Amino acid sequence: MSGLNKISIHVGEFDFESEGSEIEVDEKFARFKEEGFWSIILERLEDAKDMAVDASNSTSEQKSIPQRGMMFRTLVDNCSLEGKPEQVLGALHFLRDVEGLTDCPPRVINALFEEANIEPPGNLSLYINRLREKDFLLIAKQHGDKNRFAELTETGRKHLESRAKK
After folding, report:
1. Which of 49, 98, 127, 159 ranks highest by number of CB atoms within 10 Å?
2. Residue 152: which of 73, 49, 79 has the closest Cα?
3. Position with higher pLDDT, 136 vs 144
4. pLDDT digits (tens, 9 = 90+) for 73-105
5. How far is the C-alpha of 158 from the C-alpha of 155, rounded, in Å?
6. Angle in degrees, 0-180, between the axes of helices 106-115 and 67-78, rounded to the nearest 10
7. Residue 113 has pLDDT above 90, yes or no
8. Whose CA is closest to 150, among 111, 103, 112, 113?
9. CA angle (18, 23, 26) in 5-degree steps
């Protein structure tokens, strides 16, 4: 294992790159923060997030899609989740990681699709089994084989992240 560390941050016209030992990278990043650039970057990211939420809210009101549905729809669009298996993966991520649910029965998943004005998947077991075969989902042993307790694996999370628009 080499002692080489690297950090690269690009936000708008701000770029920060550092490569070297952990101490060198930490020192350079500390100077970057002291110069105030990090605060500016955080402000810009917060502004971008607020603008996205505002745009989502206005679009939601215009299309009369509930806020929850619009948030899921945004996830589907931003990650280009076109096929039903990927949309089901996105729905489980949304329900578990965004809304904090631990029990996601089919009626809850289908309701989320309906709130987002997306055709519900229908046979969820089919899609969940496909996602389990790809190692995108797992069901903890204490829940037996109950699909309602399916959770994203690290592989499943990375897949969603890779689909996100850059």
Report:
1. 127
2. 79
3. 136
4. 999 998 889 899 999 999 999 999 999 999 999
5. 5
6. 90
7. yes
8. 103
9. 55
Tokens linked to 25? 């990278």
How many alpha carbons lie under 13 Å from residue 31 in its C-beta half-sphere? 8
pTM of structure: 0.61
Cα Rg, the chain, nearest whole Å: 20
Q: Give the pair of three-digit tokens for residue 53.
A: 């939420």
* 158 CA to centre of own chain: 9
Euclidean distance between CA atoms 45 and 30, whole angstroms: 19
What are the angstrom distances between the C-alpha of 150 and each of 67, 88, 105, 122, 141? 24, 11, 10, 17, 11
pLDDT single digits (tens) 18-69: 899 989 988 988 888 888 878 887 888 787 777 877 776 665 555 556 888 9
Q: Which amino acid is at 166?
A: K
